[in-house]
Amino acid sequence: MFGGLKEKLQAARNRLGTSIQGVVAKQEPPSPETRTAEPETPLPQQKTISSTAPTFVDKVKVLIIERELIVSEKDISEALAELEMTLLESDVALPVSDAIIAHVRTNLVGKHRKIGESVDALVVGALKSALLEVLGKGFNLVEYVKTHAHPVKILFTGVNGTGKTTTVAKIGAFLKKNGYTVVIGAGDTYRAGAIEQIGVHAERIGIKIIQHQEGADPSAVIFDAVQYAVSHKIDVVLADTAGRFHTKSNLMNQLEKIRRVMKPDLIVYVDEAVAGNDAIVRAAEFDRTVGADAVVLTKADMDSRGGAAISIAHTIGKPLMFLGTGQGYDDIMPFDPAQVVEDLLGSDT
Q1: Cα–Cα distance, 85 to 97 (Å, whole number)
Q2: How would you list the strands of the sheet with 332-334, edge to edge?
Q3: Which of 60, 244, 295, 341 is the most buried (most CB within 10 A)?
Q4: Dihedral sign (CA 298, 300, 306, 310)
Q5: Residues 6+ positions from 109 with CB-CB distance below 8 Å
Q6: Are strands 294-298 and 266-272 parallel, antiparallel or unpaired?
Q7: How far apart are CA 102 and CA 95, in angstroms?
C-alpha cells in the first residue's frame, strides 16, 4: 500500500537531508586536523597546566555540540519544490500539499538543531509532524461504540460501485469480532441484486439482516432494522443505502429522508482510494447535503499514489475510519495515522 508515494517521500527526505547537510558543512568549525598551520613563535614561560584542563580538541567538541545550525529558506527552497511536486504527482490535494510544505518549512528554517545531532532525524521529524497534522487523529469505531448508548446507528452513504455494501459487511464482521452484536438494514431497495448481495454477506458472517422486497421504501426498511435492534438489545445497526451520484438531487433528497427517519449516530461516507481527488470532491458534496462523520476508503491496496488517504481528512475535516485492503471480510484496516506515517517514512534515527 502507498508504495509509489513511499518511494517518492523517501527521495524527498534524502533531498532535504542533502541540502541541510550542505549547510552543516559550511557552518561547522574546521577540525583540528584541517586547520591552517600558523607560524611558530617563541612561547613565553608557561606555568604547569593541570592534567584536567580542557584541550583544544575538547573545546572544539563543545563548540560543535552547542552551536545551532541555521537553515535559511534559500538553503532548502529547491528541495521543498521537489517535495511539493512529489505530493501533487501522488494526487495529494493542493491545499493539503500547501499545508505540508508550510509545516516543513516552519520546522526547518531557522535555529532548530544543534550541530552534531542527526540531520536525518531533523528532516524526518519535520515530515512526520507535517503529515500527522493533515491526517488528523483517525476514528476509533470500537471506542465509539463502547462509549455511546446502544443501539449505535450507523448510516453508510456513497456513490455507485465503490464497494459500500461490501464495506458494510466487513465492518459488521469487524464489530462482531470485537464482541458486539450487529443487525444490517438492506436500504438499497432499488436493485434486487443489491438486496441479494447484502443478504449473502450477512449469512456468511452470521449477522441478522432486515430486508424488504425490491422497490420498497428504503426508509421503512431501515426503520424496521432500528426497531429490531431496540427490541432485541442489539449493539449496532448498520444501514446500507443505494449508491447515489452526488449530482442527482432527487436521490440525495431520498437519502436525506432516510437520515431523518433513522436519526443516525454516525454517517459514514464510502469511496475508493483510487478515485484520488474525485473522492475528496464527492465527500465534500455528500457532507454538505446529508452530513458525514467519518470516511472509509476502499481499494487502498490498489492505490500506489495514496493522495486521497493523505488529503481527505484535512480537506473535508472528517476523519478516516477504515481502509479497505482486499476482498475478504478481514481485509479492512482501522486507520491509524501514526502507523501510516511510520510506514511512509520509516525510522528517524
Answers
A1: 9
A2: 208-210, 182-187, 236-241, 152-158, 266-272, 294-298, 320-324, 332-334
A3: 295
A4: positive
A5: 71, 72, 73, 76
A6: parallel
A7: 11
The CATH T-level fold of domain 3-36+52-135 is Four Helix Bundle (Hemerythrin (Met), subunit A) (1.20.120)
Domain 141-334 belongs to what topology? Rossmann fold (3.40.50)
Distance of CA 23 to the CA centre of its chain: 32
Q: Per-residue pLDDT for 117 more than 70?
A: no
Q: What is the DSSP letter of 1?
A: -
Mean of per-residue pLDDT scores for the chain: 79
Domain edges within the chain: 3-36+52-135, 141-334
Distance CA 98, CA 121 (A): 22
- Cis, bond preceding 151 (omega within 30 deg of 0): yes
What residues contact 118, with CB distance under 8 A and at least 6 apart?
348, 349
Check pLDDT > 80 for residue 326: yes
For the CA atoms of the chain, what is the radius of gyration? Answer: 28
User: In this structure, which amino acid lies at residue 305?
Assistant: R
pLDDT given for residue 230 in this prediction: 96
pLDDT digits (tens, 9 = 90+) for 72-91: 777 778 888 888 888 888 87
CA distance 1 to 305: 9
Q: Is residue 46 classed as helix, strand or coil in its secondary structure? A: coil
* Residue carrying C-alpha cell 493522495: 307
